[in-house]
Amino acid sequence: MNIREKIKSAIKKYNLINKGERVVIGVSGGADSVCLLYLLSSLKKELGINLHIAHLDHMLRKESAKDAKFVKKLGERMKIPVTLGKINVKKIAKRGSLEEVARNERLAFLLKVADKIKAKRIALAHHFDDQVETVLMRILRGTGLSGLSGILPKRKMGKVDIVRPLLEVRRKDIENFLKRKRLSFCIDKSNTDEAYLRNRIRHNLLPLLEKEYNKNIREVLFNLAQNAGCDYDYLRVCAGRFFKTNKTKLNLSKLTKLHPSILRLKLRDAISNLQGDTHRITFKHIRELEDLIFNRPRGSIVDLPKGISALKKGKVIAFYLR
C-alpha cells in the first residue's frame, strides 16, 4: 500500500474527514506537514473537501520568517488559502518550557483559524515515528494509561476534531515520497539539537534499543499506544456512567465508591475542564487529590500546576483557578 492509499485507509478507518468539510492543515513548512498538504490536496476532489493552510511563526529561530514566506508561496502555487500568524513565544514564556508554550499557542491559533472559516477539522502531520518517540518519552518521564495512549488519530477539541491522517505512516515513507515527487521543504535545525529529550530519544536511545534489545522496538511501542488508547477510551465510557456531564465540582460520596482507575480518570477530567489538558499533572498530584478525598478534613486545599486548586467543601471537591 503506497502512502496515498495509507492515508485514505486511515481517514476511512478512524472517520477523520467527512465529505464536504473544510479542513485546516497546520503547515510548518517541514517535511511532514508539506507531505500531508500535498497528499490531502491530491485527494481533494475524491474526498470532496476544501483545504485551508494555517502557519504560526513562533519567532524562536532566525529562519522562521523564511519558513512563513515559504508556506505562503506554497499555498499560492497550490491555490489553497493561507492564514499566517506570528507570536514571540520567548516573551510570553515567563514560566514553563518554551516547547509547552509554543505548542499551546499553536493549538490556540489553529482553533481560531478553524472557527473563523467554520472548519470542523484540523489536520496535523504527526506520524508513526512521532508516536513511538512520544510513548517512549512519556515512559521515561513517568505516565499512566492516558500517557501510554500517545497521540490519538482523532481528538475532540470543542466543536473541532484534531485529526492525524499520517499517524500510521513512517518517517522514511514521508521522506521517500518527497524525494520521489521532488518536493522542497524547510529544515528545522532544532530537530538535531540534543538539548531536547525527544531528539536524544530519536538519535540515541531508539537506535540503541533496536540494536541491543529488540529490533522491532518501534512496532512494539506503536502497538502499545494503540492498545492503551483502546483501553483508555473504554474507561472513559465507563466513567461517563457515573458522571453524566463534565464537571469541575465532583460529588464526594460518588467519588469514594468508584474504582481507583475511574476515580483517577474523573480527577483528570475535572482538571482538563479548567486548563484544557493535564500536562504537568503527575501521579504524585493524583495521589494527593486521593488523600484529599479520603483522609483530609473539609476545608482542605490541594494546589496543582498552572494555577489550579482543589477544595474539599461540603459534599463536593471543587476545582478552580487561583
- CATH domain fold name of the largest domain: Rossmann fold
**Domain unit count:** 2
Order of secondary-structure elements = HEHHEHEHHEHHEEHHHEHHHEEE
Q: How large is the share of residues in beta strands?
A: 5-15%
In helices, the fraction of residues equals 40-55%
How many β strands by DSSP?
10
Task: Note the total helix count.
Answer: 14
Poorly predicted runs: none
CATH class of the largest domain: Alpha Beta
Q: What structural class should be given to the helix and strand makeup?
A: alpha/beta
Strand order of the largest sheet: 3-2-1-4-6-5
Radius of gyration: 21 Å
End-to-end gap:
52 Å
Shape: globular
* CATH 4th-level superfamily of the largest domain: HUPs
Largest sheet: 6 strands, mixed
CATH architecture of the largest domain: 3-Layer(aba) Sandwich
Oligomer: single chain
What integer is the average pLDDT?
91
Concise account of the structure shown:
The protein has 322 residues and is α/β, with parallel strands linked by helices.
List keywords for this structure.
single chain, 322 residues, alpha/beta, Rossmann fold, Uridine Diphospho-n-acetylenolpyruvylglucosamine Reductase, domain 3, 2 domains, four-stranded antiparallel β-sheet, 14 helices
